Structures are given as structure tokens and as C-alpha cells.
Amino acid sequence: MATSPSHSSPESAIIEQVITEFFAKSLHIILESRSPYVSSRNYSVDQFMSSPSSSCSSSSSMPRDKWFNLALRDCPAALENFDIWRKSNLDPLVIDIVLIRRPLVPDVARPLGGCLLRNFSGNRDLALEPKSWKIVERWIVQYERHKSSSSKNHKEIRKCGTKNNGGSSCSSETAFYKKTYERYIILFRSLYVLIRLLPMYKLFRELNSSGQICPLSLSHRISSSIQPFTQEDEAKMNQFTFVPIDTPRGRLSLSVQYLRTLEDIRSEPSAPLSLQFILDYVGSPTTDPFRRLKSLPSARSSPPLVSFTRQHSWSNDHGALASVSHCPSVACSEARGIRCNPSLCLPPLTHHNDHSPPVISESQNAAVTHKNNMSFDEFWPSPFSPTSSPSSPAHLPGQRSPNALQSGSSQIDIAKACPNTASQTQAYSSEGKQQIKMDTLRCGNYRTGLTLVKHHRGFPSGKDDTEKLAELPSSSTQRPRSKSSSGLSLSDKFDDCGFACPFADYKDVTGSCNRRSPDAVIGAVVRMLTTAAPLRQGLSDLCRPSQVFMDESLNPCVQHDQDNTEQSECRASTSEILASVLLKSKTAAEGLEELRRYKEMKESILKRGASWSSDVDSGPKVCRQ
Amino acid sequence: MNCETCQLKELVVEPPEIREVLRSILHTILFHRALGLVRPKDVECELFDIIYVQCEDHELEKKIDEKINQFIGWVEKHPNRKSQVCISFYEVKNKHATWFGNKIERFYWEQWYINLHIVSPKPHGKSHNTKAHVVTGENAFEESNSRCAALGSSLREVLLQIINFVNEKKDHIPPLQNSEIVSFPYEISTPR
After folding, report:
1. In this structure, are strands B96-98 and B11-13 parallel, antiparallel, or unpaired?
2. pLDDT tens, residue by residue, A65-104
3. Domain annotation covers residue A211
4. Is residue A424 situated within a structural domain?
5. Alpha-carbon radius of gyration of chain A
6. Contacts of residue A197 in chain B, CB cutoff 8 Å?
7. Domain span including residue A57
């Protein structure tokens, strides 16, 4: 920190420190509200103070974030930049907030820092547009030294002394410093409020909180020189200047020039993207299976058993079995492709997860500024990145929230699809009911999602689109990862489970799922079928034990003296047969038809519940046979 | 000591909007006058596209909400009227002994007048014609949206007006005497 040799007194040191902190605080407030959170370095006040790069920390008498009585959360971008910039308090601090517009790469499923995007634009030969950027705000923090030593500040100091009933010069100076510090406090209050009223803040929040890929991104540039705007740009900008605050030897000033409106930028055309559904989306158990998305392509081409290898993030602790019981067949799951799994393919009888349609917003914020090692006067581009602010978790549609998706593009990404391990699923055939239940629970421990990319003019808005899609409620342990999309990239998640990115190749995904856990698929199907009504005439005898079992649940008066082992053995043999019969590819329509028929049969069975009681007594005998 | 007065731009509001409008304005003013150590909290208006800032002080929030409820109660009894909510900052001077006891004097150094014109929401036009009723309903909806957007814009202007006033006038503010969040005693006055 530059200090004049003629002002080496402790008082001067304090004044210099206050001036330095003024710059730091300004930078902190500005970047906190304009620079998307960088999760690469997690700063804390203690870390900063012990950082060797911060020469000010050793002399700071209080933690940085409490300066000027405004406690702010850590902003790594500000702290890094300040360390780099701070060479002299005499140099102005010019902070340019830059809005970058870059087109999305067409027809390429490429990882964008771990975030995958599939653009099925009709124009597959669309050429890449050049990147464009625009300075939307310019903040200037300056310290101007007084040329004359006998500045008006001496009058101010004397005035403070007069107000203090003519105290000594020392007390008058102290009063002056206190008054000055008070003005700093008020200035930063105003700055904090103003920065949130400017047009850019709304865009910042949209980009920072939404888990969407957007052609717009925010970045910043710090310099010590002021490059004038063109006349045309100047005409579009407003200016606000805070009243300069006098110090004993100079004056601190803060001003901002900002674009009056962002409509011009938002209205600029950009490459449109067509809707594309990833066919292997698996939704939530609360999804209404009869609610079809009209734009869904035919599921005929979807390979079988895909959905049963998809694991889900919601917890199935309390309802998996019951919810599974109504799935009519594998066909239902297979054909649906996008939305099916053992616990999903059901009318939500238990409503154990009463959620609105799922929105999986997985770290798709393209507005993150990557910067760890930036040099002074360097421009920081903001590439698309899956990381986003952890402080702004995504919200479910329908919830009132600043993080709510708004008009523009919407995207729900496949967060993670980790098939169950073979070791877990193999157990079902031998262990029976308990293991089946465990498998069911594990099925809910992974996430899948749907990627819908739609680009509108302006900013992303997934509200209408996402409401149409099934919601994927995540388990309590995994919900923060799926909603806040904080800090982790999709590539990291995929690497964790060793699963190939589902965006890369749909067939590869399904194939890998098949290879990895066929038993899990069979187990899930069997579990559904054992508690379901028979679908085919030939299976009616085999299904009697399941019907008896189900009927027992409806008639609590029936004695439960059956051996669980016997039931599991019976069920296991039945399930093997059923699995072999039912592992045929079916279309979604057939699956739905079967489900409907099953429902009708279920109703009829319920009506005849009383007549089964006599059969129940002879049930074990039938099973043993 | 001078008492600085700020008359804020008049806002035309409907009763359901009173709470949001007053909250945003009062919290913004108090955020600028609560000079103790604060951890600012962003609050997004539910009705308007505005984010204002408040101090994370429960007592302060509670007091403001009480006053707003008081005002809303008054509005319900006196609909369709112009009214003011005043927030004043003062200093308590030495008590003066009088014949009737100790008298506490308040020296007001700043007063903010929030001018509101309360209007009742327009009822939808009645029509026996279904189509016309639908069209009327749509028009009313659009009109309501545009009115709300205009109010949001006016509210933003009021908040900027507060910032300008705070920015320009600082000399009249008394020195900080304590380290509490709410540095200066204040009172919020509503019509009675």
C-alpha cells in the first residue's frame, strides 16, 4: 500500500487504511451483486486475513466484512481482484460490468464444463456467431488528494471541534474522523440499495440462480484507467454520482454509469434452439402416468428395460412397495421411456411424494465467471459453466422465489443416472421380500432428469415448460445438489458414478444400463407383478398367491400365520416365470392399456374381497402345491 | 440543528398493495439510518419487480409490521383517501424539570413523508354476454397488470428518491452514540 513518507504517523496509517478499505468495500459490494459466485475458492474472513498476499490484513483491526458496519458474505471474486489490483490508493478503481452474448453450439452434445447440452436445431449447419460483449455498467472509485494542505477539511475539523463545545484539536479531529466514517457507512448503505435497483441486478439474479444455459453471461473487468464510451453508448446510459466524502487529505468519490434499459440487448436475435426431449428421462413416482407429453416421440424404438435401471433421487422409504404394487407390467415402464421406473409407473395411491412436476436444474448456470488467476487489466470472459451460486438455490416452479425460472429458455438436465449395482439386485431371487424391498429403496437413490432446451428471445424462462414436466423430487440428502447446483459439475457427478454421460449417446446409455443390472429390472417387475392382478389368462393360477397376499392386506382379520419364507419361495418361483413371460417389448400405448385394464380388475377384485376369505384359508396349501 | 424533511412522491395504491409498498419504503429508509453493524437482507417484492434491503433485525421488522397493520386498519375505515405515513428521527435532549414533572424533549432532525393515495380496485364490468364478459375480464386483467407495473416503476422512483436524499444531505445527522443496529430513535406516525 502506497504511503507518503511525510505522513507516517499512526493517524495517517489509519486514514490510509480506511481509504484502502473503502476501495475494497466498494469492490466487494459491486462484484457481490454483479459477479456470479465463484466456487473454486472458498474464502473466509480468517483465510483472507492470514493470506500473505494481503498486506492490509495484518494491519486490519477488524475483520474485513464488518468494515463500515456492513457485514457482507464473502465474495471470492472481489477478494482476489482486490489483492491483484491494490497497488496504490491513488489509482482509480474502474469496474466494468460486461454482458457477454455467445451463441450455443449447434448440433453438438458437448460438455460445457460438465454440463451437457444437446441442441437439435433444425439448421444443423448453423455457423457459429462471433462472441459479442457490451459494457453495461461502469463503476469508478477514486481518491483524489488535495493539492493544497490548507484544504477546507481543516475548516471541517475546526467545525467539529466547535460542535464539541470547543474541545481540543485532538478531539475535534476525532470527531471529524467519526463523522467522516459515519458518512462512509451511509454511502455504502446507499450503494448497497442502489446496486439492487439498477436494471442489471435482475439479470444478475436470473443468470446466477437459474440452472439454465443462457447465451448471456456476466463478467467484469477491473482497470485503473477510464476508457471513454462512444457517444452512442453514452447516450444510452444514466449516471449516478455519490456525493464525494472528504478526508483530511483528499476526497473519495464513487460513481456509476449504467445502461438505462437492457431491452435492446435482450431483443437482439440469437440462434434459436428447437425443443428436444431426452427419451430416457425418468420422472417421479407422483407423475400421473396418463399425462402424456404431446411432443413425445414414439417410444417404440426405446429399448426395453431402460427405465428400470434408472435410479431416482427421491426417497422410497415409505411407500415404495405400495406404490409399486399397481404397475401393470414392464411394458408400461419400457414404453414410457421418458418417465418410468419401478416405483414411478403407478398412480400415486399413497401420494407419499406430493410434489408438483419435477424440475431438475442441475448446475447449468452459464454466467459463472471463472477466475482464479487473473492479471490486472485483463478481461475475464465467462464461459458456460455448470457451476452456479450456492447461495441461490433453484426453486420449484410455482414457488414464489427470486430463483424462479422466468421467460426465456428452460432446461432440465439429466443430473445423474447411476444404475444399481449387480450385487444388490442379484439378491432378490434368493432372499425374497426383504431384499426386494431393499432394491426398491435403492432404486430411489439416484437421479435422472430430462433435458429440455428451448431458447427464446431474451432470458431463460422455464416456468411454463417445466410445469408440464414431471417433477423429480429428490431425496433429502440429494436435494441440495439437484436444486442449488452448487459447486459441482455434471462431469464430476458422472465421474463419481462411472456412468457415461447420458447426453452423449442414448443407445450407449441404455445398453450400459442393461448390462449392468438386469436383475434389478427383473426384481422390480416381479415385485410389481406379485402384488398385481394377473394380466394374462395363462398366468392366473400363478398369480393366485399374489392375489391372496394382496387380499390378506385387505382383510386384517385373516390370521397371519403364514410362513414368510414360504411366501417368498412361492413368490420367487412365480416371479421368475412372470419375468420371463413379461420381458417383452411393449409400446407405451399397450402399457397404458394394460394399466387401465389392471385398474379395472383391481376394482373388481376389491368388490369381491369378502369372497376370497375362504380361499385365503386354503392359500398356503395352494402355494405349496 | 436543522430538521430535514423529505416529501416522497405520491403513490396510487390499492389496499392489497399497501403492505408491500410501505414495507419497501420504510425498510429502505431505516436501512439508511440504522448505522450499527447490520447484515443486510435482500427482500423481493411479491407484487413488484423490485428488491429492497432490510436490516436483519426482528424487532425492527415487528415494529414496522405493527405500524403497517395500524395504517391498513385505518384505510379500511377511510377508503379512497389520500394519506401519509411519517417516519421521524429525533434526539432525546436533557429532561427539563417542570412544575408537572420531568419533560422529555425530542428534537426531530429528519422526517420522511410517505404519500399514498388509496384507491379501491375497479370492479369487473358486468355483462350477460359470455364472450363480452371474457373480453372484459381479459381487459381488466391487462389493465391491472399495467397498473401494477406502473406502480412498481413509481415505487422504484421513490426508492431512488430516498437514495438521492440520503446522498445529498448528511450534515444534519447527529453523531453515532451507540453501537446498536438502530442507531437513532425514531417513530412511525400513521393517521388516526
Report:
1. unpaired
2. 788 999 887 777 667 767 666 666 678 899 999 988 877 6
3. yes
4. yes
5. 32
6. 50-51, 156, 159-160, 163
7. 13-270
| 10-residue stretch averages of pLDDT, chain A, 625 residues long | 51 84 91 69 40 41 73 75 66 89 59 38 41 87 77 58 55 82 94 94 82 77 87 90 90 92 62 53 59 49 45 45 42 42 41 41 40 40 39 42 41 42 45 48 43 40 42 41 40 42 42 62 84 64 46 45 53 62 70 91 88 62 45
Query: In chain A, which residues have their Cβ closer than 8 Å to the Cβ of B57?
Result: none
Per the structure, the count of domains in chain A is: 3
Residues of A with CB under 8 A from a CB of B: 66, 69-72, 175, 178-179, 182-183, 185-187, 189-190, 192-194, 196-197, 201-202, 205, 242-243, 400, 402
Q: Mutating which of A64, A180, A185, A406 best tests the B interface, going by the most B Cβ atoms within 10 A?
A: A185
- Nearest CA-CA distance, residue A489 and chain B, Å: 28
CB pairs under 8 A between A and B: 73
Q: How far is A186 from chain B (nearest CA, A)?
A: 6
Q: Is B164 exposed, middle or buried (0-12, 13-18, 19+ CB in 10 A)?
A: middle
Cross-chain residue pair B166–A242, CB shorter than 8 Å: no
- Across A470-486, b (16+ Cβ under 10 Å) vs e yields bbbbbbeebbebbbbbb
Q: Are residues A556 and A446 in the same domain?
A: no
A420 and A356 within one domain: yes
- Among chain A residues, the shortest Cα distance to B39 is held by A71
Report CB contact under 8 Å: A182, B156.
no
Residue with cell 388509496: B118
Nine-digit cell at A336? 414410457
Determine the distance in angstroms separating the CA of A194 from the nearest CA of chain B, rounded to an integer: 7
Residue A20 lies in a domain: yes
Same domain, A102 and A65: yes
Same domain, A228 and A299: no
Q: What SS3 class is residue B120?
A: coil
Q: How far is CA B76 from the centre of its chain?
A: 17
Domain final residue pick, A254, A270, A286? A270
Calculate how close chain A gets to B110, using CA atoms only, in Å.
Answer: 15
Long-range Cβ contacts of A272-276 (<8 Å, 24+ apart): A272/A121, A272/A455, A273/A104, A273/A119, A273/A120, A273/A121, A273/A409, A273/A453, A273/A454, A273/A455, A274/A120, A274/A121, A274/A122, A274/A454, A275/A120, A275/A452, A275/A453, A275/A454, A276/A118, A276/A119, A276/A120, A276/A451, A276/A452, A276/A453
Asked if A119 and A166 sit in the same domain, the reply is yes
Label each residue of B61-109 as H, E or C: HHHHHHHHHHHHHHHHHCCCCEEEEEEEEEEECCCEEECCEEECCEEEE
**Residue with the three cell numbers 450400459:** A512
Global pTM value: 0.53
Do residue A252 and residue A318 come from a single domain? no
Test B176 with A178 for CB contact under 8 angstroms: yes
Q: H or E element: which one contains A293?
A: none
Q: Nearest 10 degrees: CA dihedral of A83, A88, A91, A93? A: 20
- Say if CB B43 and CB B53 are below 8 A apart: yes
pLDDT tens digits along A125-160: 334 345 688 889 999 999 988 776 555 555 666 555
Using an 8 Å Cβ cutoff, are B38 and A71 in contact? yes
Which residues are paired to A141 by β-bridges? A93, A254
**Interchain CB distance below 8 Å, A70 and B175:** no
CB contact under 8 A, A175 and B175: yes
If asked whether residues A497 and A523 sit together in one domain, one would say no
CATH of the domain at A41: 3.30.900.10
A445 lies in some domain: yes
A172 and A187 part of one domain: yes
Query: Are residues A179 and B175, on separate chains, in Cβ contact within 8 Å?
Result: yes
